[in-house]
């Protein structure tokens, strides 16, 4: 397995603040994504989304063309009400931390029968990674990497799930490339047991209400926009059977 260090990434951040005027850096892949698929957020309303209530969350509203997950005592959450695919799909979005110092747009998404969360800026703005893999959260598993996000900067995230891999990009650069199936060097490894042959993906309990697809903040005010979901093409699925090099960007 490979987790690609984000330190090789230049600090690619958008211009302007989180008021909707800033633009994240675009990539050729980003342009391709918009040719197919569906936008899950219309930029104006929360149609198609629901807000789980825990009693200590911040306000949730649409402002300046983005979903605003306001600063709560701990977490603020939003869940997509439509059908979420389980494999061979890609979801992209742009996010900005308006205030706070922890994760601001953590995406929970399906992986086959399981679920996982891309944590961005967790553990007091120190950790980006997947929670959880075989019971280990992003601070403990091999996807963990350090990247200090800046407030009032837009970032572009992309998550791809196939039968072979879970891959993530930040501003067009690969940051996570994790297989779904273990190899003979993994522990535990039992080719006769699905539980031991495949990595087990699940979320931490704090974001349980975001399943199967949703976003969360933690002690932070986050803004999220341009949420786009698409199915992968047959060619993309075929190419995914080969693990890319560390500097490869699809």
Task: Considering the chains and any ligands shown, give keywords for the structure.
4 helices; seven-stranded antiparallel β-sheet; single chain; globular; mainly beta; eight-stranded antiparallel β-sheet; 36% strand; 250 residues; Jelly Rolls
Tell me about this structure.
With 250 residues, the chain is mostly beta strands. Helices cover 8% and strands 36% of the residues. Strands 1, 3, 4, 6, 11, 12, 13 and 15 form an eight-stranded antiparallel β-sheet that branches. It has a seven-stranded antiparallel β-sheet with strand order 2-5-14-7-8-9-10.
**Strand element count:** 15
Give the helix/strand class.
mainly beta
How many domains? The number is: 1
Query: What string, H for helix and E for strand, traces the elements in order?
Result: HEEEEEEEEHEEEEEHEEH
Q: What's the average pLDDT?
A: 85
Corresponding CATH architecture:
Sandwich
Return the CATH topology: Jelly Rolls
Tally of DSSP helical segments: 4
Largest sheet: 8 strands, antiparallel
Give the uncertain stretches in residue-range form: 1-15, 26-34
What would the principal axes of the Cα set say about the shape? Answer: globular
Helical content band: under 10%
């Amino acid at each position: 397995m490979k987790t690609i260090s984000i330190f090789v990434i230049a600090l690619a951040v958008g211009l302007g603040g989180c008021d909707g005027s800033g633009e994240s850096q675009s990539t050729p892949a980003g342009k391709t994504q918009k040719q197919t698929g569906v936008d899950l957020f219309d930029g104006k309303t929360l149609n198609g989304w629901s807000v789980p209530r825990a009693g200590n969350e911040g306000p949730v509203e649409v402002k300046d063309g983005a979903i605003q997950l306001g600063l709560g005592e701990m977490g603020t959450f939003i869940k997509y009400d439509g059908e979420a695919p389980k494999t061979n799909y890609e979801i992209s979005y742009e996010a900005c931390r308006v205030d706070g110092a922890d994760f601001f747009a953590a995406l929970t998404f399906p992986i086959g029968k399981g679920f996982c969360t891309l944590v961005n800026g967790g553990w007091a703005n120190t950790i980006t990674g997947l929670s959880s893999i075989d019971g280990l959260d992003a601070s403990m598993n091999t996807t963990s990497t350090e990247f200090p996000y800046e407030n009032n900067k837009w970032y572009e995230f992309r998550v791809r799930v196939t039968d072979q891999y879970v891959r993530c990009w930040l501003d067009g650069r690969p940051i996570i490339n994790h297989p779904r199936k273990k190899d003979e060097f993994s522990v535990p490894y039992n080719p006769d047991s699905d539980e031991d042959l495949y990595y087990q993906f699940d979320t931490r309990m704090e974001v349980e209400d975001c399943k199967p697809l949703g976003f969360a903040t933690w002690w932070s005010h986050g803004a999220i926009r341009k949420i786009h979901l698409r199915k992968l093409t047959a060619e993309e699925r075929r190419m995914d059977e080969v693990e890319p090099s560390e500097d490869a960007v699809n």
